[in-house]
Each structure stands twice: as C-alpha cells, then as structure tokens.
C-alpha cells in the first residue's frame, strides 16, 4: 500500500481536474472537488513522512523502457518530502482562499482556473517525488503548461504579453534541462538521483561537467535568478491566488528545488567544490539577493514589490546549496517550507486588500491597518519573518544559512555571510515602510468600497486562510518539526553528508 501512495497523491488533483470540467455549471460542486482533492493529497503526502523519517524507502516504477536505466517513477526521500508537504499543505489553504477571491470579484473562466490549478499542483508534487531526472522533467513541463492559462487569466493585452514572456523564458529552459539530462545519461548511464551525486560524473572532463552544470542552471530558470528573472514580475498581472501559487508553491519553488537536487544529488558537492562551480553558483545567488532587493525598494505596486522580494529570497536557497556546508544546506531546505508559508501569506494579504478596497499601490494604503487589522497583522508577521527576525520561522532558516556561510571558513564565507546580512537588512527597508504606512499614516480621505461603505476586512474565505498561514509562520518558529519538516531536513543532511 505504501508503495502506491505517491501515485495516489499525484492522481488526486488529476481526478479533481477531470471532475471539475463537467461541474462547470455547479460552482459549489466544482469547488468541492478542489477542496476534497487538496485535503486527500495533503493527507497522502503527510502519511509518508513518518516512514521516511524511520529510514524506509518508498519507490514506485510506473513505466520501464527497454533500457532499464530509463524509467518513469517515484522515489520519496527526505528532501523531496519537504517540498511535497509544502506544496500539498498550501494547496488546501489557497483552494479555500480562491473560492472567496474569485467569487467576490466575480472573475470569469473560473472552471478553467480551478482545472489549471489542479495540474499545476500535480506538477509541483510530481517534481518533489520524482525518482530521476526524466520523471522530474515531465512534471516540470506540466507546471509550465498548466500555469500559462493562469498567468493570462485576465486575457487583457498586458496579461497576454506577460504570458508570452512567461513562455519565452520557460520553454527554452525546458530545452536546456532536457539537454542536461541527455548529457548526464551519456556520461553516467543513469538519471537517478543519488545522495552526494552520481559517481560516474567525476570521471568526465571538467569542461564537460561545467557545460552540464550551466545546462541545468539554465534549465531551472523557474528559480528566477538574475538576469533570467523578468518573467516573474510581469506575471503579477495574474490573480493574487495565482501569484501565491507562482511564488510560494509551484513554479519558483520547483526551480530552486531542482537546483538543490542538481547540486546535492546529480553533480555532487565534492565535484562542485573541486571544479569551483560552487563559487559561480554562490556568486549568482548573492548578486540576485542584493540587486532584487534594491528593485523591490523602488516598487510602489504591492505585488511587484513582493515579486522582487521572492526573486531575492529564492536565491537564499540557492546560496545555501552553493556553500556546500551542512548548516547552509539545512538552511536551504528549511527555507523552502518556511519561505513558502511566509510568502504565501504576503500574497494572500495583497489579494485581500484588492478584494476589500480595490487598492494595489502601497502609496494608497495609508491607514489600511486600522481598517483591515487581521489582514495587516498577518502581513506584518510574514514581513518580519522574511527579514529573519524572531519569533517567525524565517529566523531559523536564515540562522542556519549564516552558520553555513561562517562554516565555509575562508574569505568567501565571510563575504557571503555579509551578503545574507545585508540582504536581510534590505528586507526591512522594503517591507517595514508598508507596515508603517498601513498602521501609522493617516489616509488623505475616507476610503470606501465603490463609494458606498468604509473599508473593512475581505470575506472570511479570504481572511481565514491568510490568518492560518501567518499563524503557521509563528508555529514553525516554536516547533519547526511541524509536519516532520525538521526531522526530514536532518535526515536529508545525514544522507548528503553522512553521519547523524
């Protein structure tokens, strides 16, 4: 039964998508399928965590080609389980939020929206549970195709341009990823993920391995590292639940997840160190962290500021993997779920403000904290955590990243430690003015909704999910092992580095 659990988890959103289409004229039934599938998927994914923590292996081969090393299948390891738990748990909350958001704004094409959302989450969890590069590639491309209709949801000229840019970046990225997979198989005769890397790659020439590294790095352009990032702010034209999906759950997290996979489970940390590839990756990450933060400071549109914040925060994960120390890698793995819960809170708050007031610009939000106290309190909690300030979970992952940079033990380690600290300071610079504007600035005039009534909180189906994600951002600080996250991270580090 346990061996089939990954397949059952993946099938939940696929079955829901098939049921959503014929339910297009019955919104309550259509959305019930979404909620039921999200809960079922989360429970199935979570049920595997105790087994993985105990050291058991869950592997399922779906299709075996005539070449025994080429197959499609799932293998649940500790690192993949962290991402799967993050994506599946947040899908539950975003599904509830979507109902309130889409109905309140009377959005069109809601059936297409829920249908596409199902496949996007299926792709994300499929990436997390993939046994090898082939399976990962298939689900990675499912994410690209399924999120395109979500990006262009508004179907305005601006939305269509954003969708075209989205595909212009991510479709070639898929070609680079496929090229990297082909090189890997040619050199090693396998595509399986192996803790500490695929041993046969060490016998290849340094030039070939370097080409392989850059092929994978370009293949995982979903990580939005600079200069291949501009598709992400453009995609903010999408509805707020989609922005939350892009930034906290499926797309960009799949990108950084893939980079960590390549560093730890394909090329391997020893080879990364030997060829100096770690320094290239760390340099790219550090540059992105700082420059994206400066871009965020200049944005008045709330969602675009959050978008540039995401670009910066994703590179914390990349930097943690690049530094190749136990603490830095653990910080990178923990930042996947912790950032997920904090960032999704911020985007859900942005959507709640839009639903309740129609406001999208920070300069228009003076006094909004007094009129939407729950929303802005949740926003403040998440913003504090993004800056790495306790008592929010971002402090824990950033602390591990700082310890990891210190453990490098060379001038480079001190440089990257400074980058982490400076970037965290810049988080304060672009987040705290929003909080100050919301709670301490007086609005220039009475703010009303459609000129009829004073501003108030968004509907409960919108406010409750963002409140829950904010609460979990606090709970993870107090109890980081919620959903077995901390134990899974420790086990993944043990597999990569050996020992306990």
Automatic annotation (TrEMBL):
Pfam families reported in the protein's UniProt record: Proton_antipo_M
Record carries keyword rRNA-binding: no
This protein's UniProt keywords: Membrane, Transmembrane, Transmembrane helix
Residue span, NADH:quinone oxidoreductase/Mrp antiporter transmembrane domain: 130-418
Transmembrane portions of the chain: 32-53, 74-94, 114-145, 166-187, 207-225, 245-269, 275-297, 306-324, 336-356, 377-400, 412-440, 461-479
Cited PANTHER family: NA(+)/H(+) ANTIPORTER SUBUNIT, NA(+)_H(+) ANTIPORTER SUBUNIT A
Protein name: Membrane bound hydrogenase subunit
UniProt source species: Methanothrix soehngenii (strain ATCC 5969 / DSM 3671 / JCM 10134 / NBRC 103675 / OCM 69 / GP-6) (Methanosaeta concilii)
């Amino acid at each position: 039964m346990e061996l089939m659990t990954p397949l059952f988890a993946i099938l939940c959103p696929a079955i829901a998508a098939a049921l959503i289409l014929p339910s297009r004229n019955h919104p309550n039934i259509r959305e019930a399928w979404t909620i039921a599938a999200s809960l079922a998927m989360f429970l199935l994914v979570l049920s595997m965590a105790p087994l993985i923590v105990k050291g058991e292996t869950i592997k399922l081969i779906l299709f075996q080609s005539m070449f025994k090393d080429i197959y499609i299948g799932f293998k649940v390891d500790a690192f993949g389980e962290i991402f799967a738990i993050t994506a599946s748990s947040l899908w539950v909350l975003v599904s509830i939020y979507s109902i309130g958001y889409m109905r309140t704004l009377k959005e069109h094409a809601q059936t297409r929206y829920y249908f596409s959302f199902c496949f996007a989450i299926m792709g994300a969890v499929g990436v997390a549970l993939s046994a090898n590069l082939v399976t990962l590639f298939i689900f990675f491309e499912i994410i690209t195709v399924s999120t395109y209709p979500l990006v262009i949801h508004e179907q305005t000229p601006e939305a269509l341009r954003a969708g075209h840019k989205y595909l212009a970046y991510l479709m070639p990225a898929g070609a680079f990823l496929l090229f990297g997979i082909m090189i890997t198989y040619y050199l090693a005769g396998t595509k399986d993920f192996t803790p500490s890397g695929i041993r046969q790659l060490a016998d290849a020439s340094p030039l070939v391995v370097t080409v392989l590294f850059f092929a994978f790095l370009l293949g995982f352009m979903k990580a939005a590292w600079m200069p291949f990032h501009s598709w992400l702010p453009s995609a903010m034209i999408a509805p707020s639940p989609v922005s939350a999906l892009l930034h906290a759950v499926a797309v960009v997290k799949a990108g950084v997840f893939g980079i960590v996979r390549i560093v730890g489970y394909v090329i391997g940390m020893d080879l990364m160190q030997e060829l100096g590839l770690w320094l290239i990756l760390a340099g790219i990450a550090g540059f992105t962290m700082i420059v994206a933060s400066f871009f965020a400071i200049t944005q008045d549109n709330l969602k675009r500021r959050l978008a540039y914040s995401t670009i910066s925060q994703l590179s914390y994960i990349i930097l943690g993997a690049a530094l190749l120390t136990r603490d830095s890698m653990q910080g990178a793995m923990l930042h996947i779920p912790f950032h997920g819960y904090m960032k999704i809170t911020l985007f859900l708050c942005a959507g709640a403000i839009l639903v309740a007031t129609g406001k999208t610009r920070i300069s228009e939000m003076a006094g909004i904290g007094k009129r939407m106290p729950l929303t802005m309190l949740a926003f403040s909690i998440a913003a504090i955590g993004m800056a790495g300030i306790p008592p929010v979970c971002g402090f824990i992952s950033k602390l591990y990243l700082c310890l990891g940079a210190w453990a490098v033990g060379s001038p480079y380690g001190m440089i990257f430690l400074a980058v982490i600290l400076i970037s965290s300071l810049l988080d304060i610079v672009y987040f705290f003015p929003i909080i100050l504007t919301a709670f301490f600035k007086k609005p220039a005039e009475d703010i009303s909704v459609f000129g009829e009534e004073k501003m108030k909180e968004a509907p409960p189906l919108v406010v409750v999910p963002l409140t829950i994600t904010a609460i979990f951002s606090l709970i993870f600080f107090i109890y980081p092992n919620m959903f077995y996250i901390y134990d899974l991270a420790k086990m993944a580090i043990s597999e990569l580095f050996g020992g306990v």
